[in-house]
Every structure is written in C-alpha cells, then in structure tokens.
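Project standup — Tuesday

K.O.: blocked on the structure for the chain from last sprint. Re-posting the sequence here as requested.
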Amino acid sequence: MKATLRRFTTEDGIYIVIWLILFLSPVMGMLLHQPYDADSSFHWDLVLVAWKDLSIFFMLFLIHNYFLTPLLLSRTRKVLYFVVASIIVALFTIYQCSTRPEGPRGDLPPEMREQMPPDKHGQMDDMPGRQYHKPHSFKPNNRPPLIFGEHDIIAVIVLIMLFGMNIGIKLYFRTQHILEQQQKEHNEAIRQQLEYLKYQINPHFFMNTLNNIHSLIDIDSEQAKETVLQLGKLMRYLLYDSERQTVPLSKEVEFLDNYFDLMKIRYTDRLKIVRQRPDDINGIDIPPLLFISFIENAFKHGVSNSQDSFIEAILNIQTDEKGKQKHLHWTCRNSKVHIESDNHNPATKRLPRQGGVGLTNIRRRLDLIYGKNYTLQTLDNDKDFLVVLDITLTDKKA
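H.V.: unblocked you, prediction finished:
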C-alpha cells in the first residue's frame, strides 16, 4: 500500500511540475519580450488567451490520465481505449477547425498590432487609415469553417504527443511497480526456502544430542546434568540467534565448539577431533547454522567407537592477491567408517554413502544466500571425505 501511494505521489508530482511550467511559460515569455519603458503595460489578455488553449489540453489530459490509460493498461479493454482516444482526437480536430480568431491578428492588442509587419499575404491589420487586401475566398476577419489549417495540424500533433507522453510515464511507473513486486515476491520466496532449509537441520541435531544425554544418564548422572546445561546454551542459540539473517562468526564458532564437546561424550578416545581457527574473527558475519550440517555428516558417516576415526574442522580467513577481498575458507575432513555386514565377513565390508539430501540442501541454501560468491567442493575416497567451502566476504557480510 505504501509503495503504491509513493508511486502515485511521484507520478502525480511529475504531472504537476510539467503543467505548472506550461501555464507559467506565457507569463515568462511576456516578461522576457516586454519593452523596458515606463509606459509599457503587461498584456494579461494575451496570457489569458494562451491559458484558454492550455486549459483545453489540460482537461483532455485529465480525461486521458484518469479514465483512458486504465483501459489501455487493462488486458481486455485496449480496443476500447483506442476507440475512445480516436473519438477524442477527432472531436478535438473538429473543434480546432471550427474555432477561428477574429482576424489574422485579431487577438493582439492595438498597440502591439501597430508594431507588427504585414503578413505573408501583404495584409495589414485593420487600423484606421490603412487598407489591406484580403483574398476573396475569406470573409472579413474570419476563415471558412472546417478548413484544416497549419495551426490545426500542430494542435492535433501536440495532443497526440501529450497522450503519448502520458502513456510513457504511466507505463514506466507501472513497470517499476511490477519489478518491485516481483523482487519482493522473490525475496519472500528465498526467505521461506531458507527457513525451511534451516529448520531441516534442527531435528537431526536434537536427535543426536538427546541420544548423547540418554547414554550418560546411567553412566554419569552428574555429567548428564552438565550436558543438559550445555544443551540449554545451544538451544538458546537456535531459538534466538538463528532467527537473525546473519550472526557474528565468533558466535557460530562457539556454537560448534559446544556441539563438539557434547558429541565427544558419546565416543571413546579412538575418536580424534582437530579444530583450528584464527585468533581474530571479529567483524565477520555469516548466516547462522552454516557449518553444522557438515559436522553432523562427519559424525554420522565418519565416526565409530570400534574403529579409529577422526574429524578435522579448519577455519581460515584469507585475503586475495590484491588485498581487497577477504575469503572465508572452511575445510571439514572426516574418516570413512567401514560397515560390516553378512555376519561380519570382512569380504563384505562396504563404505557408507555420504552427502545425499543433506549436502543438496546445503548447496541450495548457499545458492540462495551467496549466489556465485562461493565455491563448495567435495572429495570422496575410500579413506576419508573432504569438504572445502570458500566464501567471498564483502562489507562484513558473507
């Protein structure tokens, strides 16, 4: 509603400025051409004549702007617009041809007519003592009605150009309005998709964390209580900070540290976790929950209590060769756990399939947020699985 009101206010403001200039132009023209002597007077009668002609164009403009252009912009009434507009132009042409001045210079005041030279027919104004020849086909001080003259052609062309200008301005603002609506709908669709993809993370996270606490209840109740408190911190981050479009990178890293601490409780010392990050990560914002899916996949597919396993999560902030743009460089590497089947026959060992829907959702989310300003590469082999994410950071936003 506000955008529509702003559009009409701007459009009407343009029309007001244009018509103010047109109505003031006769006054300014008279002032510029008026002789600089004390006896000269301002000829308001000429200004009124010009205003009379402009008033006709102004009324036709109002009709066209508020009644006819809505027909043109409609999908089903364009033919009606052209019919009505043609009728208006035809009626205006008849009016122009049937409305004549009193004479070649009949609208000019006497003192100005004395200064005028003879016209192209050798005629002089009807001043006392002067004789001039008038063609016999013309009545005194009048032209035959319905003769399409030079001035009539100009007036009709001006009217058509006026209608065209009105249509051009109207279509411009209508196009801008449509583009704004499309952009708004596009942004809303992206927001909804991001919310959907983000909340797909939470159920997996809750399930894994609750399993950790469940395994601790019988083993170490005190540790289970401490774990519940840690889970509360993570919940606070999920409930409040994750609702924002971006969060400080330091908070996201703290969230991952808490998650690692919770997940380590579930596994033995056969799991080796390596975490690296720069000392200074202030002033960098990223979307919340950006890395957690990689970590979850690493624990899901690369960790086992019965085998030696590892997870490496390394974060670097790099600067390009020119030193102008920063890049967030994230790598996550995890071991591949061999899953035995067929009564634990070593010959039937197989590797888990990594990626799948989770990785597809991550790519979709990155596409919506960063577009072409990121690269995501994966390397899958028999021993480990590697994820390399590089994001171009601009204006403190990733």
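K.O.: great, moving the ticket to review. Confidence is low (pLDDT under 50) at residues 102-108, 119-146, 341-351. Residues 150-199 form the longest helix (50 residues).
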